[in-house]
Amino acid sequence: MEIIKMENISKLYKSGQIQVEALKDISFTILEKEFVSIMGPSGSGKSTLLNLVGCLDHSTSGTYELSGTMVDRLSDSKMSDIRNMFIGFVFQNFHLLPRMNAIKNVEIPLIYRGMNTKMRKELAENALELVGLKERMHHLPSQLSGGQQQRVAIARAIVGNPAIILADEPTGALDTKTGDMIMELFVELNEKKSMTIVQVTHEEEIAEYGSRIIRLVDGEIVSDVSSGGKSNV
Ligand code: ADP
Ligand code: ADP
């Protein structure tokens, strides 16, 4: 089943006389339960693409279908409903709230859904258990290592049971060994929990944890290859 379907997507940034075409007429689909890595040099359009996939921004032209819903022409508020329902985000620098302990951080997406306290606690504990950090749930981010903070952030991303995890350089702030542990967690979420994962990374070794690598150069897809060597273009 296709979960992400982009057709002829372009993104133009305009500021005064200056115009940048960050994405140039790109098309691709991602199936449910795929683990896809997006690579490319700085300025190639990776963040722009992730923002569009994550319903954080509108394309300039083209169509984007997310799990059967055409999202690109929705209002911002409808788009954020879709985003909250389908997508969990993981960032390079974790983006945890420093004054809240681990479990409170994980509960945040559930607060937006208006869930009651008891239910929130239960789901947040389960998510922290899944990432192997239940015993640290009352620690503040500053009392956790980088890898542990990223695991809390991953628990927050998955607590609402989204279909898709979008990760922007998830290992960028971590040493190699810790980064590998985070990738092993992604592989487990992908294989055991059937989550679709799309990550942006600069690192070839990290990209290879995915089963498919899409490469961007100057806003265009220059290659799209499955780990078995099968080309998708
Ligand atoms: P990457 O994530 O691969 O580094 P980006 O998607 O951030 O690439 O950027 C792609 C191109 O679009 C770059 O030329 C960048 O300068 C430009 N760009 C990105 N965001 C904006 C913006 N908000 N306004 C203007 N130009 C932008
Ligand atoms: P990354 O390291 O993820 O590639 P970037 O440094 O490309 O991030 O961009 C960081 C943020 O700044 C993005 O949200 C992007 O939209 C914005 N941005 C990037 N380039 C420009 C630009 N030329 N003008 C305005 N905003 C930009």
Q: What's the layout of helices and strands?
A:
Blueprint lengths: L1 E14 L2 E14 L3 E5 L6 H8 L7 E6 L2 E2 L5 H11 E4 L11 H11 L4 H14 L15 H13 L5 E5 L7 H17 L3 E5 L3 H4 L4 E6 L2 E7 L7
Helix pairs in contact: 3-4, 3-5, 4-5, 5-6
The site of one adenosine-5'-diphosphate has 12 residues, from strand 1, strand 2 and helix 1.
Enzyme class: hydrolase
Keywords: ATP-binding, Hydrolase, Nucleotide-binding, Transport
Family: Belongs to the ABC transporter superfamily.
Key attributes of the depicted protein:
233 residues; alpha/beta; Rossmann fold; six-stranded mixed beta sheet; four-stranded antiparallel beta sheet; binds adenosine-5'-diphosphate
Write structural notes for this entry.
- One of its GO terms (cellular component) is membrane protein complex.
- One of its GO terms (molecular function) is ATP hydrolysis activity.
- This protein has 233 residues and is α/β, with parallel strands linked by helices.
- 33% of the residues lie in helices and 29% in strands.
- It has a single domain, classed as P-loop containing nucleotide triphosphate hydrolases (Rossmann fold).
- It contains seven helices and ten strands.
- The strands form two sheets. Strands 6-7-8-3-9-10 form a six-stranded mixed beta sheet.
- Strand 1 (2-15) and strand 2 form a beta hairpin.
- The two termini are 18 Å apart.
- The protein binds adenosine-5'-diphosphate (2 copies).
